Amino acid sequence: MFQVGEVSRTLGINPQTLYFYERIGLIPAPERTAAGYRLFSQSDMERLAFIVQVKGLGLSLDEIKDILALKDGRSLTCQAVHERLCKKLNEIEQQIQQLQALHDQLTPLVNYCAQNLEVTDRECVVLDTVNFSQSMDQFRKESDHE
To answer: Can you give the residue ranges of the HTH merR-type domain (predicted)?
Structure first.
């Protein structure tokens, strides 16, 4: 049996995380000593290691809870895992697209500022919403002439 500190150190998670996982039902309530200290079994450790592992893959706690429910019911088939991982992969691909769009918006702003680092007699207007499109048009014109 393992105490909270041992579990925490072994798995590299905060003790408060263990209490939280117990409170939201990711792990069953562990046994307790006469003094009320939690004691985790080897099975609890394996479940927690599984949670840490799949959380590291980007799965949310709700997704993990869903997988654990299937696992507990002995119905965690490859098809069930495949469906969930494909859904997660699609979400990640959407996030990548959103981040790429953000990158594409920020890059010209950074370039504009980089070309004007020595200008100290006026305020930078690159983030000025009124002048934003004008600044970008001006930057594009200047870039085209280089």
So the answer is: 1-70
Q: What are phi and psi of 33, to 5 degrees?
A: -75, 175
- SS3 of 37-92: the string is CEEECHHHHHHHHHHHHHHHCCCCHHHHHHHHHHHHCCCCCHHHHHHHHHHHHHHH
pTM listed for this prediction = 0.68
Question: 11 Cβ partners below 8 Å, 6+ apart?
Answer: 45, 48, 49, 52
Q: Which amino acid is at 124?
A: C
| 59 vs 84: CA distance, rounded Å | 9
Residue stretches of the chain with pLDDT short of 70: 129-146
For 100-144, the DSSP string reads HHHHHHHHHHHHHHHHTTT--SS---TT-TTTHHHHHHHHHHHHH
Q: Please report the pLDDT score of residue 143 as a whole number.
A: 59
